[in-house]
Amino acid sequence: MKRTHRALSAALAVVLASSLCTIPAYAVESDAEPAPPGRVQADETAPNQSPEADHGPGSEVPDASGTAEASGSESQTRTENTTEPTASPLQAENASRSAVAPPAGELRVTLTEGRPAATAGTVYEVALADSDGVQVGAQQLNLSLEGDSWSVARFDGLADGSYTLSVRAPGIAPYSQKIDVKGDSSAVELYVGDLAADPQAPARIGVLVPGDVNGDGTVDDADASAIIDDIEAGAASPACDANGDGTVSLADLETAVSSFDRVAVEATVARSLPPAAVEAAPGEGTEVASGSLDEVVGADAKPVSLRASEAISDEHPVEVSFDLAKDSEQAPQLGGMVINVPPSGDHAPEAGRLLVELTDGTVREIGISRAEARAAFFRSSAPTAVIDENGTVVVDFGGQIAVKKVTLVITKTQGGTNLAEVSKVEFLNNMEERIPEPELNIPGELSAVAGSKQFSVSWKAETNVTGYELSISANGREEVKRTTGTSLSVTQFDEQKPKHGTVFTLKVRSQNGAWRSDWSGSVPVTPKAEKVPDAPEGLSLKGTYRGFSASWKNMEDTDSYNLLYREKDDENGAYTEVRGLTKASCTVDGLKDGTEYQVRVVGVNEIGESSPSVPGIVATANVNPAQLPAYRLVNTKDADGDYLNHIVSATYSAHDGKASMVDSPLDDASGVARSAYGLFDDDYTSYLHVKDWDYGGHYPAFNKGVEVTFDQPQTLGMVSFADVQDGVPYGRVSVSYVDDAGAWQTVQANVQMRTGENGRKYVLAKLPQPVTSSKVRIGMGHSWSSGNVVVAEMRFHAYDSLENDIMALYADDLHLELKDDVTSAAVDELQQRLDTPDPASGEFNPYRVELQVELDNARKLLATQGLEGTVRVHNGISSARDNRSLGISGLNAWQPLGAVVAEGDQIVVYAGAKGAVTGKEAPLRLVVSQQHPESSNVSKTIATLKVGRNEITIPSLSSLDVEHGGQLYVEYTGDNDAADWGVRVSGAQAVPVLDLYQVDDPAERLARTTAYVQALEAYVPALEESHDKLHGADGSAAVRYGYDPKNCILNATDVMLDQMMYSVPAQQMLAGAGSGTADERAARLLASFDAMDQMMELFYQHKGLAGSFDAGTDAAVVKSNLLPSQHLNIRYTRMFAGAFMYAAGNHIGIEWDSVPGLGKGSPVVVDGDGEKASGSYFGWGIAHEIGHNINQAQYAYPEVTNNYFAQLSQTDGTSASARFSYDEVYDRVTSGDEGRTGSVFTQLAMYWQLRLAYDAGGAYQLYDTYQQAFDNRFFARVDSYARAPKTAPAPEGTELVLGGGEKQNIIRLASAAAERDLTDFFQRWGFTADEATKAYVSQFPAETRALSYANDDARAYARSHEEAGAVLDKDVAQAAAEANGSEVALSLGADASAGDSVLGYEIARLTTVDGAQQRQVVGFAQAAADGTASYVDNASSLGNRVVSYEVTVVDKFLNRSKALVLDPIKLTGNGLQDKSGWTVSTNMSSAQDSVPPATDDDPDAPAPKPASELMVDGKADTVYTGASDGEDPVITLDMGKPTEVTSLRYTLGAGAEGSAIGDYRIETSLDGENYTLIKEGALSLDKDGRASLYFDNGKDPWICTYDARYLRITAVGQAGRQLSVAELDVFGPSGDDVFFLDANGGAAGILKSDFVYQKADENLDKQFIPKGSLVFTGSYKGNPAYNVVVLYDENGNVVGGVNADGSTVASQIIMAPEPGDAMLGDVSEGSWVYWIEPGDLASMKLPKQVRAELYRVDNALTNEGQRLVSDSLPGDVPDNLPDVELGGNATVAAD
User: Fold this and answer.
1) Is the dihedral of CA 1316, 1319, 1322, 1323 positive or negative?
2) Where are the alpha helices (DSSP H) in 800-937?
3) pLDDT above 70 covers what percent of the chain?
4) What crossing angle do the helices spanning 1203-1210 and 1180-1190 adopt, rounded to 10°?
5) In this predicted structure, what is the pLDDT of residue 270?
6) Gap between the Cα atoms of 1122 and 1104, Å rounded
7) Alpha-carbon torsion (317, 320, 324, 325), positive or negative
8) pLDDT tens for residues 1251-1303?
């Protein structure tokens, strides 16, 4: 018996796999129900469309010729007048008929929406224009992932010529492509989104790039700035919705930034023969059973069934001929054809042939057969015809040939019937341009992670697909969600949040247009709540008639909400509750009129209720009529009480039927069409209702507005009107009028929302200049898409020159200088006029308060008292200057105006500049902020200022029940270096402000800061008094609150530095200055401000951003690397749940207690090496949040890369100052684990080590120019290349391309910056380079230094010592190893010549498998001060194996010595696995779970700390106790890497009696997705509270070994029960062992006589080892039925060699003691013999040493589970082999 042959046939076989280069196959089809299997071509009818109109919704229907709008005869005439293009081979047949036949060219454009979040619906205009630029057709395709995600635009009847295809949509970079039409059928496929497509590939899909807001064809900083502006303004412009989700948010900014530097990829034009050029006919014996052969050709084909007289066979085939030309001269040039047939079924063709007739009369025969398996796609010169698994016959003629006729002959179908089906036939011009069908790629590695009321799903990406479908099913319902990504967060099922405890079954499949792969295997997931909800945030309230509407942020972990409200005046009263709200909104009615209510919201889940939200305040609608002003009223009351005096007629424009008068008796009785007398009837129940947000205010037009004719020309100055009840404010009013020449003119009025004495609001629209006319038209509009226009009453007011006369006093736009002729008498005369009421109404001028301020200012100027408060606008701060791909966020260009305002305040803002024309729009925007806001309501842009005087009403930003209002800012939007704008605010409250922007003179900086501190010292103590005075009972309702320093809008200040602005409470900023005199406090604050300036400069230099460049620097380099002109902004805000600080789109939020810390910094003073000598920056948190905003987008990873800056701000150049532990770092980089670490701080070390290895200067060293920073700062080069990849080095011509995800990007960027191949360094960190990355980084020499062991102390040493080469490649390592069971203690040292340069020792474990040595780095030991170290290797997972160790010295320069290899050691042990790096996850909740609070050291919401880690902490006295809710408890162990496992030990723990696991199920997995059941049963504890569970294969009684990374333990049937686990231990192979016999017994010799190990009987032949054989003998522990021994020589070759069939020449037997009647099982001692028979020995060279390897299998018949379990130390083979005899009783395991 040659047992060895069986065991080794698998062990020694070498499997060779050849890979063929695959050309990616893309197709983009409709995502309607999968069409008949097989590829649907580009013009397949899209969902919900008829075949006659396959255009998208809303598109224009093609005319009768089939061409899109405007083709027809006009196109023909135009084409006939142009030069005829060169004829294409495909139009040969049409050539003779061109004079009479209509144009035959056609184009199909398939467009697929591929943006993962594009659910709102985007309208794409697909247009085609001829060579003259005249549009011949345009169609609109409305695409959405929740509707039709693909559609087709088709253009038919196209004359020959050159055309331009264009595709446009809001927020998408315009796409254009030249297409030549040559009487053929052309098709292109386009995709919107992030699709990897090779622009040089012969067959490719076209790609459109999202994020182009301004439509200039590129995505850059200008687009990002536009999105930020849109977010701030709340405008939600369609062009800013870059991700297509229907809203404008930071997600759109992320989409735009990810598209930086991306360009559109032009699609391949696939050409085919037009159907009209093909005549199809059935062959002899073939009839058409269904369908028509006239319709089977081309993109719009319909299936046809063909019938033979008998079952289809070679003798009775079905045939179809396709005549392509009447004579040879007309024959088209073709490269192949595509025939769609069913992929399976009785009528699916299985075999056949094609007869291809050429122009010379020859006929080529091409056999058709189905592909056995999917092969790689490659071109061949030989004709081929293969049916793939999609049911597509791809016919390649082997090149372009002229074809007259093709005959399809089908000789076999799958069902053997007499019917065969053909779905479609297309004749292709060039097969290389054909986009092949996608591979049948079923997504793998499907996994799901449960959350609270949600779950996340991910899977492995597949190639050549454009998206995926995820099937979610539960409770008999199924939903399919589409996405283009490889992960999905599921937050809704059956229009509700996923319910806790519900088991959802998930599966996924790939899609590419209409094609779908098969479904993957399914996985279950069950959402569960983890804690009570956080308090609801973002409460927004709106008053309505006797009620209010409320909405708030939809909070995680929340099942429902309770809304609580009460009258605000009843602050001690009980709340009324509205319970069980399932949506984050609510409407309450039945309340009192005009009453304020306080509102709060509470979140609820199955665990409990949240704390209440911050209270909000809302007032129900005031039902009193608005009190419109009567000052200088034109349309006074008539005798009937209507305001119609002087009005001859009043009408409203229909606005396409959207406008109507409601409940107006005057108009009902007028007999005039569209009369509007009801606007002047003093009745608020009659009104004009327009179902649109604009009625001529924004877009004046003849069909919009209210037209009034007066009895005589009137000179108007103002118009006022009011809504039925207070609603959305009006933003624009236009006044059109008929001038003296009879022409209509239009002016835009200045609009203010005023509040009357009864609290009702109305619109006061002041004309920019008086208008005299007898006919006017008034247009009005809200903000964009914000409610209908409703007008109840309207008034006209005669012009009063008083305001103009007062304004004429001033000589400048800022009103800082009076004209020379102004006198006190003139001012007094104007004062008298202002104090005189209108005699008719008794009312004063509506602008009396504002005009009084102007007169008061004039008197001050006359008295030579200057006016304060003019702010000079810095023209260097502007978003327009940051129109470039910086890859950072969080910037704004706001400049403080030193003023605070309250909601409803009416202020005047003056803007002026030298040479500016009064009344023209200025490049200035006014921004108002909310004091102490929630993160979503920080600010709003409220106006674009015009030159001169701007009257502004402050809107509301918040519904919170606190003071409404905040600081004012101006934003410069230009980029003119010479601009010198000034801004002054009147009507606001001044607050202290400090401007140190670009103030470099130390004395000036100190003077300004001292003045600022003095202002604070005067201002802050008086805050409460000022509040009571300004915000008391007589103050605005928006600020009528008791004094609360945390919410009072007066408690505000701004400090503007070079790259940072503080917007914080004045009281807390003063507190940050400490105590002492003003001078002392100023010095302290200034030092801190200097520290922030310095820190920001340092951070930006580490990013390669600078303000100074060497002379002659290329302009493109300057643009890419110039410091941002905008600043970051630290603002005082409310924290959301769990946060201590946060970073948002345009600010960094901090709370009250963090503000004084801004005054605690001090500038860093560096020593000669650029390291810190003194000084300190701010806490970890501030730098952490700054890092969130400025870490480079291309490789940013949240909570990791941003911490680079936090670490930079804290380091003192020592390892002790690192936030991470270097011991943990070394454990990580020697673990072999893949992917990111679980600790964000440990992961940070990867980036930090790169700085340590490649930075030339000290951490805090600042450089004078960009070039100096670039040369000396590693990450300056990294980020520079990220911003401009084409500038990165490419020594062998392969350019840097980004886009492979942050992992691949950082490998590429870091290698470029180092100009070294860093794949080994990143592999140590678990980042594996993909092929594209390898292609780029392989251009550089490999880094040989041990970067992954770098630390701060080593860098400090290296910078202060000369590298002497004491270690590099030298034999300096010294080591000794001692084994104690499975642990090996190593004593490590270095030769004295290494001196004090030793950093530590890399330890690699060496083992041998199949005769070959394997090396695994297992640890790194840092050297002590004396250069020595020790290390203990826990090799328990190996069992009884032989190991040796390789020790390498690593010095502080990161050089490696020569490796020292120690003598081999034999391990013994029980197989206990080392649990370092293990993680545990469970669906149980425990009272021991914790959520650490946010702190300055960890400012973002820290991750929860599950107590489940107690199960693997190695401490039996730390017991985990928890319970699951609604489903069986599951514990999953992740061991970090695949490991051999044989058993599991469970320890209950002291004091946990009664909570042990009962019934259990254990499963293993390698990928965390696919699990295999290996054991189940009932747990039985021993006296020590332990249970050891040995794994088996379910068939045999032996212990089995499994390869596993994951172990999943399920407590079956124990949902809701408290379970305890003190410790879980996993064991690997331990019992199997192998030895040679000792010297006395002899290990090798020549057999002296035959050794019979099996005697002959009636059933068995005699088996023996023949005399003269070379025998080796030894002992083993194990199972003789499942073990096999193999011997290897000193060179790793099998002793005896192998024969031609791969079997070993040697033979072996395993012997065990006779078991008697028992089963043969594991034995503690047995023998083995390995021999080479005499005939084979003659040609064999004897080895000098031999090693034994013992293998075990799980199945003795199939060798399943074969692996090495033990090996021996090497034994010497004597030169003179002794004679040996074998004997003794033994049983041989039968084979």
Assistant:
1) negative
2) 802-807, 824-834, 848-862
3) 88
4) 140
5) 85
6) 9
7) positive
8) 999 999 999 999 999 999 999 999 999 999 999 999 999 999 999 999 888 99
